[in-house]
Amino acid sequence: MGVRQSRSPWPGTLAAGAALVLGAWLLRDGGSPELPPAPGSGQAQAGIAPVSVVPPLGPSAPTRIRIPAVRLDAPVTALGLDATGHLQVPPATDRNLAGWYRGGASPGQRGTAILAGHVDITSGPAVFYHLGALRRGDRIEIARADGAIAVYQLYAIEVHDRKDFPDDRVYRQATDAQLRVITCGGSYSAEHGYEGNVVAYGFLADTTPPGKAA
Question: How far apart are the C-alpha atoms of 188 and 164, rounded to whole Å?
Answer without folding.
Answer: 16
